[in-house]
Design a protein that fits this description.
932 residues, alpha+beta, Transferase(Phosphotransferase), domain 1, six-stranded antiparallel sheet, four-stranded mixed sheet, 38 helices, 12 strands, 61% helix, globular, disordered N terminus
């Protein structure tokens, strides 16, 4: 069932008059009062949950009014409370709130005389309207709510049927009958009404205490009877706008109880296919619908500003100025003449259009042609998937530039210094686009592979409107300003070279820029130049050079007081040292970065997500899986909030979560994450993109470990085909696909098919990455397993030993990465009869697998140890116990080896045959006994 809402209370199809003589009265209603207060009553409009509504006439001013007579059975205290609230509303004057004229008392009830509006309710008005019109209407309604909040009032029952759209186009919020404000000392027991017109919403006897509001729009704190504030109205506003955009509410329930469960559980549904809601609106509303009020927008002004920041909305700016909505929110009501407002809006809109030159049709044609020339099979697809990200960036930049032009006229915080920094920030963002377009137009095959990612990583422009952020930016003015701007533009071009894989050319240019920045003596720029060079050096695996450049950059940023740059440098340093296997150093740099972003209030931003992601990688490498999952999950939530649910960075976060689940043996959970990551990458990057192949390889690994080797083979074959087609045959990612395909064949027992794939994988790794790269350890171990199976013990020993040396160098001797090659060497020693060495190595491997909670791998080592120890009189009991433990673990994992171990145990537990001498002695004793 759908929940009913209140009937309209003061909507008219008639034309209200001003200065008219007293109209004729509707005498059809016998109970119609002649006067309510000083107002002559013309007719009854209807009844709502809080009282009756009449049309009256103000004989003094010659105008019609709507009069609500409030039910008030609560006695003098209740009457006094209602009167104070109505008086508070009467003090509120805003174009988007129905005006209250007078408060009085009639026959023991409080009445409120208010503006009589001609129009229709927002719910009915919005049907069939264009998205633009709906957003404009809700902007006005939101401005009315914001005005009430500034007056200390909370509506508590905002919904489309409490908003009216006048014939003049002006939107007004009405029916503050549930409003609570600072002027009233509220007792929770007063919250006694759930308003319904034709249905009982729930059994009130089953509730711990009644609540007020309309269920479909009520925030979690209302259901829980917790304290409410302006963010409660924000939640209802977001529900209403979601409904207007999608045709359905974000939370659903057939009964009040199921609806309550849905809202309190955060069980929000996604917009239906074909809905009119753009991504930027969805992201704004999702935050406003957060269960925890602290996670919502700080207030209605911030939410409305975010909604106004969507693409191509000149109409919204004009409406905002004309209707005084945004102006009223920022600094109160500002009187601007309509002509001046339109001129200002046109001028600011034109400023926003500056960005179009960087992405005009000619530029787009050159970029597309460059991509196709570099990669005929993939270039056109890459362009089509990259273009939406650039289009979104261009629209966001244009809107941000227009807002930066508008805000100084309304917000006193926007001083000339702040405006200058905002313009510099926006210029830097525009240079990112120009550098990206140039790099893509001059693409090679490697650039084409990264085209979509480059477009997706164009910088966010929201910080360029954040006064707090801008106040922390360096003020480069005077003679140095032009040179600093040129340097920053060059740095963005260098970063674009890195983004498309041209690290060598970028590093050479970055080193030149370091000298120019030092000569300019602007420490922040000198720090940025070193950070750009350090990042480029890292991408070429020049670890020592990268680390030195980044440390110098961090120190210069700290001297300049650039805390955001310090955080970025620390994050980059963490990535560099972790790439070398120095986890402890990585954790220290990561913690410094986290301290900085937290101190700046950016923990829940994309910068914070990057730091969380890096800390989680260290956690995962140190087997701190719970902490890794928590941090990866938080990074995923932030990226989803800022980037939307379908973005390459969201896909990467999901893949990271999948890897942690895989390391914990949670194959089903890993598979779910990898499948979603694959879905996003196919949608955003195209079905033949190399990152789609990465997702396929990860998914294949999870499925293989879950026991479905056939599906793993199919996915691995597709991943290999994509990588060979887009990357060539001698690329590390091709080697990874070969290794996973080989592992799938091993899982199926097809060792002859697996061996050449693993050997080819190793050859590619060794050629491209070097003989000692950490990535060689796992395929080396798998290849050694093959040699071991066919009793090629010398080859097996050599491959295991090489894998162990690589793992120990990269991770240390006590890391679980060393366990598999250590166990392999132990098994080789056992088969050669070297029992002491075999036991030492197998015991070490078992300890590492147990510490890392790898029960299946540990079970195999237990069985090897059991086979080794069975022959010793003292060690036999332990051997049998180890075998039983191994069989139990493998049986739980549904591994076929469990049956083999159980058969081995059955043979091993039979009584051993007596030695020959003992048998002869027993036979002689038996013969002697018979003679007697």
């Amino acid at each position: 069932m759908d929940f009913e809402e209140d009937e309209p209370t003061h909507v008219s199809a008639e034309t209200p008059s001003t200065g008219e003589t007293r109209p004729s009265r509707d005498e059809s209603d016998a109970d119609l009062p002649l006067y309510i207060g000083r107002f002559y009553i013309l007719k009854r409009l209807g009844a709502g949950g809080m009282g009756q509504v009449f049309v009256g006439f103000d004989e003094d001013l010659g105008r019609r009014v709507a009069i609500k007579v409030l039910h008030g059975g609560g006695g003098p205290a209740e009457h006094d409370r209602m009167r104070r609230e109505a008086q508070a509303l009467a003090q509120l004057s805003h174009p988007n709130v129905v005006q209250v004229y007078e408060v009085g008392e009639h026959d023991g009830s409080v009445f409120v005389a208010m503006e009589y509006v001609q129009g229709e309710l927002l719910r009915a008005w919005a049907k069939g309207r264009r998205r633009r019109e709906i957003l404009e209407a809700f902007q006005q309604a939101g401005a009315g709510l914001a005005a009430a909040h500034r007056a200390g009032l909370v509506h508590r029952d905002f919904k489309p049927s409490n908003v009216i759209v006048g014939r003049d186009g002006r939107v007004r919020v009405m029916d503050f009958g549930l409003a609570s404000g600072a002027l009233t000392a509220r007792d929770p027991k007063e919250h006694t009404v759930v308003r319904a017109t034709r249905s009982v919403l729930w059994d009130e006897h089953a509730q711990a205490g009644p609540v007020m509001g309309t269920p479909g729009y009520m925030a979690p704190e209302q259901w829980m009877r917790a304290p409410i504030d302006a963010r409660t109205d924000q939640f209802a506003f977001c529900v209403a706008l979601w409904e207007a955009m999608c045709g359905e509410k974000p939370f659903v329930g057939r009964t009040a109880k199921t609806l309550q469960i849905s809202i309190l559980g955060g069980q929000r549904r996604e917009p239906p296919k074909g809905s009119r809601m753009p991504g930027w609106v969805r992201r704004a509303l999702v935050r406003g619908l957060a269960k925890d009020p602290a996670q919502r927008w700080p207030g209605m002004p911030e939410l409305l500003a975010e909604l106004a920041a969507g693409p191509k909305r000149r109409w919204l700016w004009i409406a905002a100025v004309v209707q005084l909505a945004i102006a009223a929110i920022v600094v109160g009501v500002v009187v601007v003449r309509r002509s001046e407002a339109r001129a200002l809006a046109d001028r600011c809109h034109a400023a926003g259009r500056e960005i179009t030159a960087a992405w005009e049709p000619g530029v787009q044609s050159r970029v597309r042609a460059g991509l196709i020339a570099a990669a005929p099979e993939f270039g056109a697809t890459a362009f089509e998937h990259a273009r939406p990200f650039v289009d979104d960036f261009v629209a966001a930049w244009a809107d941000a530039r227009a807002r930066a032009c508008m805000l100084p006229n309304f917000d006193p915080r926007w001083t000339p210094a702040v405006v200058g920094r905002a313009e510099a920030c926006l210029a830097a963002a525009r240079w990112s686009l120009e550098g990206a377009a140039l790099a893509l137009a001059e693409a090679d095959a490697g650039v084409v592979q990264r085209a979509v990612q480059l477009a997706a990583e164009l910088p966010a422009v929201a910080p360029c409107l954040d006064v707090g952020y801008l106040s922390r930016r360096p003020d480069v003015s005077g003679v140095a300003a032009d040179e600093a701007a040129r340097l920053q533009k060059s740095l963005h071009a260098v970063r674009s070279l890195q983004a498309v894989g041209r690290a060598e050319a970028g590093l050479e240019q970055a080193k030149k820029l370091i000298g120019e920045a030092d000569a300019l003596a602007v420490k922040a720029l000198a720090a940025e130049a070193r950070m750009a060079a350090g990042s480029l050096a890292a991408s070429r695996a020049a670890w020592g050079e990268a680390e030195a450049l980044l440390e110098d950059g961090l120190m210069l940023a700290a001297e300049a007081g650039e805390e955001a740059l310090v955080a970025d440098a620390a994050t980059m340093l963490a990535e560099v040292v972790v790439g070398q296997g120095r986890l402890a150093d990585g954790q220290r740099w990561g913690r410094l970065a986290w301290a900085k972003v937290t101190a700046q209030g950016e923990a829940a931003t994309l910068r914070g997500a990057r730091v969380l992601d890096q800390l989680a990688r260290v956690d995962a490498a140190q087997q701190e899986h719970e902490r890794a999952l928590d941090r990866f999950t938080r990074a995923l939530e932030i990226r989803t909030q800022f980037l939307g649910p379908v973005h390459p960075d969201v896909a990467r976060s999901l893949a990271s979560l999948g890897e942690v689940h895989l390391a914990r043996g949670q194959h089903a959970e890993a598979r779910q994450r990898f499948e979603r990551s694959l879905e996003i990458r196919e949608r955003t990057l195209g079905a033949d993109h190399p990152e789609v192949a990465s997702a396929l390889t990860s998914l294949a690994g999870a499925i293989r470990r879950g026991g479905d080797a056939e599906t793993a083979e199919r996915l691995s074959l597709r991943a290999l085909a994509i990588r060979e087609r887009t990357l060539g045959t001698r690329h590390p990612d091709v080697a990874a696909a070969l290794a996973e395909l080989g592992a799938a064949y091993l899982a199926r027992g097809e060792r002859a098919r697996a061996e050449p794939l693993l050997e080819r994988s190793l050859a590619i790794y060794a050629e491209v990455l070097g003989l000692d790269h950490p990535q060689l350890a796992e395929p080396l171990t798998e290849l050694a397993d093959l040699y071991l199976h066919r009793q090629a013990l010398d080859q097996a020993k050599k491959a295991y030993a090489r894998a162990l040396a690589i793992a120990e160098k990269a991770h240390g001797k006590d890391d679980v990465a060393c366990a598999a090659p250590q166990a392999g060497l132990g098994e080789v020693a056992r088969r050669r009869g070297r029992e002491v060495e075999a036991q030492r190595r197998l015991e070490k491997a078992l300890a590492l697998f147990d510490a890392a909670a790898r029960p299946t791998a540990a079970a195999r080592v237990r069985f090897s140890l059991a086979q080794l120890l069975l022959g010793g009189k003292k060690t036999r009991p332990r051997a049998l116990e180890l075998a039983r433990e191994a069989a139990a673990a493998l049986r739980a994992a549904e591994e076929p080896l469990a049956g083999e171990i159980e058969a081995w145990l059955a043979r091993a537990e039979e009584p051993p045959p007596a030695p020959a001498k003992q048998r002869k002695k027993k036979a002689a004793a038996k013969k002697k006994k018979k003679k007697r």
